[in-house]
Design brief:
The chain has about 100 residues and is mainly alpha-helical. It has 2 helices and no strands. The radius of gyration is 17 Å and the shape is elongated. The structure holds zinc ion.
Amino acid sequence: MKFDFFRARNVVKGLLMAAAIMCVVAFVTTGEYKSISAIFGYTAIGTMILTFAIIFFALRCPYCDARILRRAITIKVCPHCRRNLVSGMKVKRKSIK
Ligand SMILES: [Zn+2]
């Protein structure tokens, strides 16, 4: 399965959001609905593991194929080949934040 960087990043964002919502649901339902809470809790953990797996395997620079792990959600410039991940243009060191 081949992801492009932005599609993978959107999937990661969606999964993180889903995991966060499930954590909240698990927290809210704890006590009265223990079994429901457990289901949501485990699903949230599973979703997070899946999310990290996607980050690890799919978030790669499309130009130099380097893994982008740090700040993968907000990064715009590949830290390895210094190309803009959108345009592919080389970026000077100064403009990287
Ligand atoms: Zn790169």
